[in-house]
Design brief:
Blueprint (H helix, E strand, L loop, with lengths): L16 H20 L5 H18 L9 H20 L9 H10 L3 H19 L2 H11 L4 H8 L3 H21 L5
């Protein structure tokens, strides 16, 4: 067991524990936010985070330092998340009814807080509906990655990343400003 309380698979990997703890210390919160972009359900987000952490632990011996640890971690996290999404595609989508939104609004303090939570949820739903590459770009951008770092994670050129992000930001802005549509 590590100092973080995470039980790691047994084996001859004791030297990897400090580096894995470094990954957790530096990136755990960002990885949790990343799972929000892939899963609506808290339970499924926890499962996805666990899949990501297991993949990182398994891949850690292959990290050669040719990229930053940050971009390496997020490349693995997004690859695991994309695979997870493909497996979960058949699972029914989670949509809020008008009654659910009313309960949400009454359960938080103040109208502004309710509106903020609804917008965050709408943004999350919109991001989860994007194609995998677009979702990856948006989530990395929201985590504060620079276009060069996003290019390193995705394998796209800096110019392509900048162009795609510009278009995606316009789509997301429009969706958040207009709010959910009745369909």
């Amino acid at each position: 067991m590590t100092r973080t309380g995470l039980v790691l698979p047994a084996g001859d990997r004791e030297g990897d524990v400090p580096r894995f703890e470094e990954v957790l210390r530096e990136h755990a919160r960002a990885l949790q936010r990343l799972t929000f972009g892939y899963e609506a359900s808290p339970e499924h987000r926890r499962d996805l985070l666990q899949e990501i952490l297991v993949a990182l632990w398994r891949a850690l011996p292959s990290f050669e330092g040719r990229s930053s640890l940050k971009t390496w971690v997020f490349r693995i996290a997004h690859n695991v998340s994309a695979s997870h999404s493909l497996r979960e595609r058949r699972r029914p989508k989670s949509w809020r009814s008008l009654e659910d939104v009313g309960e949400l609004a009454s359960s938080v303090d103040g109208e502004a807080a309710a509106l903020s939570r609804i917008r965050v949820e709408a943004l999350g739903n919109t991001v989860r509906a994007l194609r995998p590459l677009d979702r990856q770009l948006v989530l990395l951008f929201l985590e504060g990655f620079a276009p060069g770092e996003i290019a390193e994670v995705t394998g796209l050129s800096d110019t392509n990343v900048t162009t795609k992000l510009s278009r995606l930001r316009a789509v997301l802005r429009k969706h958040v400003e207009e709010g959910p549509r009745d369909e």
